[in-house]
Amino acid sequence: MTEPNQFSSQTFVYPQPHQANQVDDYHGTQVADPYRWLEDPDSDETKAWIEAENKLTFGLLETIPARDRLKQRLTQLWNYEKYGIPFKQGERYFYFKNDGLQNQSVLYTLKALEDEPVVLLDPNTLSEDGTVALSGLSISEDGQHLAYGLSTSGSDWQEWKVRAVETGTDTDDRVQWVKFSGASWTHDGKGFFYSRYDEPDEKSKLEAVNYYQKLYYHRLGTPQSDDTLIYERPDQKDWGFGGGVSEDGRFLIISVWLGTDPRNLVFYKDLTIANAPIVELISTFEASYSFIDNDGDRFWFSTDLEAPRSRVVAIDTTNPDRAHWQEVIPQAAETLEGVGILNNQFVASYLKDAHSQVKLFDLNGTPIRDVEFPGLGSVGGFGGKRYDTETFYSFTSFTTPATIYRYDLVKNESHVFRQPNVDFNPDDYETKQVFYSSKDGTQIPMFIVHKKGLVLDGTNPTFLYGYGGFGVSLTPSFSVSTLVWLEMGGILAEPSLRGGGEYGEDWHQAGTKLKKQNVFDDFIAAAEWLIDHKYTSPQKLAIAGGSNGGLLVGACMTQRPELFGAALPAVGVMDMLRFHKFTIGWAWISEYGTPENADEFKALYAYSPLHNLKAGTAYPATLITTADHDDRVVPAHSFKFAAALQAAHKGDAPVMIRIETKAGHGAGKPTAKIIEESADKWAFLVKVLAIES
Q1: Catalytic residue among 156, 590, 665, 680
Q2: How many Cα atoms occupy the beta-carbon half-sphere of 569 within 13 Å?
Q3: Quick one: which H or E segment has residue 28?
Q4: Is the predicted pLDDT of residue 533 greater than 60, yes or no?
């Protein structure tokens, strides 16, 4: 039985942006784009529209009594010490720590774990509002210098600087226009490799397309204009380059990437030989290869070549023909996510039904043992050098804040290094994993988290969260924001949709290009399962996701608007016909396809959220979120979708957009902004799902 609509007596007067007569021809199909002008975020008309939309949205949010209380509880819970995983370089340890409510985590260093840590870099001092974030770091082999990248207001653009570790003072080194790159030091500590783009036009730097990345070497004490160009490909505008120095310091390993395609090339350069050529070891885009380590000329890689769940192979670079490759660790039933070498053993991280396993092997690939963890959860860490006998890792689950362990590889013993103290009782909650059938019969796993003693009567407010793309795996993780939802009696449901990496590359490919509809079918089937099993009802069900997950929400709410009570698409890819025309959007063609291909256009047009809104339809209550400095998924996606949704929507439920300022795609967002956005999100759901709070 449908509950009476609580908004029937409330009228929302949406802004009425003008509709331009813009029509494009795609393979004979005429497609209108009346809000094309919203693609310019700096025009006076766009700025006026943003102001009007935020006024409407915050006008509603400010009337919700629960909003202040939610913000207080979020702030209270967020205020606990958060530790990053320690790592060692030279004779020093390094780790991040946040005292609780700091906008950005602080980097500390110490020579022994029992010493008093010293602040090495505090990003909170770089801006008053916390919108300058540390977005990359690399420490020289001797531990004496820190190269670090800074991003402003959430932009992907980075400026790299160098700091002397002993004194905590910066050198004069500056490296600009870096994007999608780390830094890797030569072992003499005299400089580092990095990748950059040409300097963009200042006015269009947040929208302009990024092509022709180049790999450089920066020598300390010299201006960037003197940096040595290591590699470029003027004939391949889409290629990007990741340069990393091998642990023995001998080789520069160059991973050549093509957008978000998991397949890559591998080149290398012998750094011990003057003017050594760059050797193309793997020169065709047919599989993914991740360099692990080397024994002289013998290179180890993890790869999904002929193994969609990945395996480990050895390549002798003096005899590199594939016929001579050796399989070291064969493909397993679980998905191999990453491999390192510690204590002269392979440490291999796997996913089994979306939770972590770690297995040890000798260098011949013979299994040694599994590492034991406290339960089903997600594990990160296990970094270090080849002969290290200790390492650190984190363990987290939906109801376990990230706990840092110190692991002795010789004794096979884990000891708690840092355990956070959060103001809640994890024993009050339970997590289960179920499997359900998607539209085509594929079995999809889903985590469900809620308070113990839940009554399955179809009335529980439920937050269904998904991603389903780019080979990204959603695994159990702790979130203060989610905890507040659970405290209110809400359910969290998180399915492992196709398009992700939970079951390897075949699972990923099953949700790409012409098969992208599988992802939406998986998510819709999750909603139907939750309703059929009396966890919730359409009136109490909210769907959410960010970026590619925002696309997921947009597609599902346009395909099945009656199935959901609320939709929260965040920084979503909403215009599937123009996504490739901005910043790094072209890089997603390997995932989505391109509208320039007739068959792929047909598939994209069939689900593109912007193009599947139907006039006169009652859509679920919607809170779109985006940010003015998002140069990953430019805000035009959300702007155009919001304008078109408000024009098409004929129901009483609010359909609104919340536009954050001085923020980007999400990385580096200050704690204060995260708390505010979380409070607004939950307050909106309290209102539209009629939750008693």
Answers
A1: 665
A2: 34
A3: none
A4: yes
The verdict on whether 680 is a catalytic residue reads no
Over residues 234-284, the pLDDT tens digits come to 999 999 999 999 999 999 999 999 877 889 999 999 999 999 999 999 999
Contact residues for 438 (Cβ-Cβ < 8 A; gap 6+): 444, 498, 518, 521, 522, 525
First to last CA, the chain: 22
Give the span between the Cα atoms of 679 and 683, in whole angstroms.
6
Which residues lie below 8 Å from residue 499, measured CB to CB, with a gap of 6+? 467, 468, 469, 470, 471, 507, 508, 510, 511, 512, 516, 518, 519, 548
Question: Which single residue is written with the structure tokens 């998510």?
Answer: 523
Give, in degrees to the nearest 5, the angle at Cα 639 between 634 and 644: 135
Between the alpha carbon of residue 681 and those of residues 76, 100, 363, 476, 638, the distances in Å are 17, 21, 49, 21, 16
Helix (H, G, I), strand (E, B) or coil at 21: coil
Question: Which residue in 630, 637, 649, 678 is the catalytic one?
Answer: 630
Tell me which of 397, 547, 608, 678 is the catalytic residue: 547
CB 238 within 8 A of CB 587: yes
User: Does residue 355 carry a catalytic annotation?
Assistant: no
Q: Cα-flanking dihedrals φ and ψ of residue 503, to 5°?
A: -120, 25
Summarised one tens digit per residue, pLDDT across range 433-452 is 999 999 999 999 999 999 99
Contact 467, 545 (CB under 8 A): yes
Task: Please tell me the pTM assigned to this model.
Answer: 0.88
Residue 524 has φ and ψ, to the nearest 5°, of -60, -40
Q: Judge whether residue 461 has pLDDT over 80.
A: yes
Local confidence band at 662 (pLDDT 50, 70, 90 cut-offs)? low
Catalytic residue at 129?
no
